[in-house]
Amino acid sequence: MHLTGKEELINIIKQKIQQEGAISFKDFMEMALYYPNLGYYTSEKEKIGGLGDFYTSSELDPAFGNLLAKQFNEIYENYFKNQKFQIVEIGSGKGYLAYDVLSYIKNNYPNLYKILEFISVEKSPYHRDYQKKLLKDFDNISFHEDLTEINNINGIIYSNELFDALPVHLIRKINGKIFEVYITLEGDDIKEVLKEPQKDILQYLKDLNIDISEGMTTEINLYAKDLIQEIGNKLEKGFVFTIDYGYPSKELYKPYRMRGTLLCYYKHTYNENFYQNVGLQDITSHVNFSALVYYGKKSKLYFLGFTDQAHFLISLGLMDIFQELQEKGDYKSYERLNRLKTLILPKGMGEKFKILIQSKNIQNPDIAGLKNLPYESDRYKIEV
């Protein structure tokens, strides 16, 4: 296979292989996405929206962030009234979702806004600089490169499409044995080779009772395992909202996903050519929400609920926004209606995106976003 994309980054990857020998697919993916200034997420390339490679829910309409703000205010009123309250967004990108959340809180919940401390965590220097300009009119906001820079959070930690972008290990089952996919050089090209897996991978499979089918290639996200525990350790009291696409283990590793879930996004098209457009395209995999629940418990995160975006937004009042726009009846309102429908369409964003909610040190937690839940099939059933 011939690597294409950013020549400087490709040469760095090849040099690493020449110096160290075969590297894991995880190492390759990490360099492709996060190598300083050259990786997909760390470069200044436009990634989201019409000029980028994909859309997020927050890009389509501010209602997504507005309804999140409504949920956050309910949590403040019920569990933190007149107490220290922080909202942390991890992987906040250019800050569009933060802008919608903060705007709605500022305009509708002055008591919350007055005491709120908003913390943005974003690895990319380019995105942090963009955020500082976009969010300059809001009070009590701080910007951080890494979660290690903050401690003792009381309130809410949330992320939107963060875990799917974490580098993953690739594994393959051959003759009943698990191997890990590595990458080496063959002349000027690269090829995949199979090697003994890291012990942490085998422990992960054992912990979650995962037995993949013969011949299957799939992903193991050890970064996600570590990150959810770090989040739990940073949270003293409050809630964790993880918004992303994926499934519980029972659904994620079914035999009809023999090639796993890894996909690349480039200019609003998707492909499985991981070694093309290196540094220029996104590489993602579906989130194993069972893993977030299992390892979250190790840092005292309690499983509260698992739903999809459609049920979550409708539970928080999306249909009221629909009604208001229909009553206005003007062109702009109908434009918004069409965008909002995209957020909840079955087989689309409404079903694709899931919301996992965990809590810590909250007595009898109960929140509006979990009022109406989807049917508990294998796609939604998390065994805790």
From TrEMBL:
GO terms for molecular function: protein-arginine omega-N symmetric methyltransferase activity. GO terms for biological process: methylation. The keyword Zinc-finger does not apply. Keywords: Methyltransferase, Transferase. The keyword NAD does not apply. InterPro entries: NDUFAF7, NDUFAF7_sf, SAM-dependent_MTases_sf. It comes from the Bacteria. This is ATP synthase beta subunit/transription termination factor. It comes from Sulfurihydrogenibium yellowstonense SS-5. The lineage of its organism: Bacteria, Pseudomonadati, Aquificota, Aquificia, Aquificales.
